[in-house]
């Protein structure tokens, strides 16, 4: 008898747990593919479409109709959640083919509707767009999983432009930075560049310079202390009173030759960060002080050059300097282009055109980048 009661008690416990589990995890409806991430990204150079379906977590016993709608007002929600700066695409540039789908009896997944991007002609360069599509109702008994009620379709127009060719010992100097008070005491600083390396220097000191000032604040590939295809912030010098402290930093990632990357270094006032394609790759604490980008060492601020050499064999398409610390989200938004009037933007060079040897600063601040020789270009450069 005692044995019988032990078996009965165990059965009741199992039943209690399983029943409780069923109560906590009911079957639900969700937009297919949003279980782990409800954001999908598209890079477009013309009209396209993507299919959208709804999934039930169990077979439906009868045809179940699910209604959908485009919800532009939810773009602000995504921006709050991610720190990004998406906007809804221009009106008339997109369309949801059908506002309802059906999960047929005995099935898990509905038939498909199409989200059409009918035109990208009015999309702005570098802008980040988002089309939220939400489940609005169902005639079935399953509730909607709230976290997967909406799919956020983010869109960026592919830019096709040209870039400057630095393969033949070409580099740029920014003379207006020298002794300029606007860049002499930068309590926050972001320096970013879109770069492709053809090769990485294979002889001592194994350095390919990207942008900045040697011994002060320089982004470069390689050093005797790291591999030649690693990214390094060299110098990282912060001044506090008469004290100067250096915070050199290297990312563990290995870069591939022949591939475009967006690289950035950021001084927040307390931290030095290195980013690759908007992803934090290395960080270190730093003193609160300022960085002097007006130094005239070896000719001052350069792109593709430092310390009387150490040149980059590759291409540059974008370079920018800010007097504020950009976040990872802001860097991701800026991968291909940025508004030249953006707050905190000190200098902005888009290496797609020139006046002779001069690449103009698009901010209007007059920080022209001057080439050491006649400029050559490569065409058909795509971003992203």
Brief digest:
By secondary structure, the chain is mainly beta.
Please tell me about this protein's structure.
- The chain has 384 residues and is mainly beta.
- It has two domains: 27-156, Sandwich (Immunoglobulin-like); 161-383, Jelly Rolls, CATH 2.60.120.
- It is built from three helices and 28 strands.
- Strands 11, 13, 20, 21, 22, 24, 25 and 28 form an eight-stranded antiparallel sheet that branches.
- Strand 20 and strand 21 form a beta hairpin.
- The longest helix is centred in the N-terminal third of the chain and has 23 residues, at 2-24.
- It is elongated.
- Mean pLDDT is 92; it is low at 1-23.
Topology of this structure?
Layout: H1 2-24, E1 29-31, E2 39-44, E3 48-52, E4 54-56, E5 64-70, H2 75-82, E6 94-96, E7 100-103, E8 113-117, E9 128-138, E10 150-157, E11 159-165, E12 172-173, E13 189-197, E14 208-213, E15 217-223, E16 226-234, E17 237-240, E18 243-246, E19 249-250, E20 260-267, E21 271-276, E22 279-285, E23 302-303, E24 314-322, H3 328-333, E25 345-350, E26 358-359, E27 369-371, E28 377-383
Parallel strand pairs: 2-10
Antiparallel strand pairs: 1-4, 3-8, 5-7, 5-9, 6-8, 9-10, 11-24, 11-28, 12-23, 12-27, 13-20, 13-24, 14-15, 14-23, 15-16, 16-19, 17-18, 20-21, 21-22, 24-25, 26-27
Question: Which features would summarize this protein structure in a list?
Answer:
eight-stranded antiparallel sheet; Immunoglobulin-like; Jelly Rolls; mainly beta; 3 helices; elongated; single chain; disordered N terminus; 384 residues; 2 domains
